[in-house]
Design a protein that fits this description.
Layout (H helix, E strand, L loop, with lengths): L1 E8 L5 E8 L3 H11 L7 E3 L2 E3 L1 E8 L5
Antiparallel strand pairs: 1-2, 1-5, 3-4
């Protein structure tokens, strides 16, 4: 199943304000949200100053074979 999320990369590089835009079920929504909230980024810089950045993330879950 595919889960589509939005969130904010803060000026500290951490993800916040994660929201599910689309998901086949609650369990995958929670798993995707839990995973994305652990990600860390280098902050986006605007004129050398860290700023918040909106992102959209697609998480594609597949059954193991």
């Amino acid at each position: 199943g595919v889960v589509i999320l939005t969130g904010v990369i803060g000026s500290d590089g951490l993800i916040s304000s994660v929201h599910v835009l689309s998901s086949p079920n609650q369990e995958l929504s929670q798993a995707a949200t839990d995973a994305v909230e652990q990600w860390e980024f280098d902050p986006t810089l605007l004129d050398g100053i860290p700023v918040e950045t909106l992102i959209q993330v697609t998480v594609d879950f597949q059954l193991g074979q």
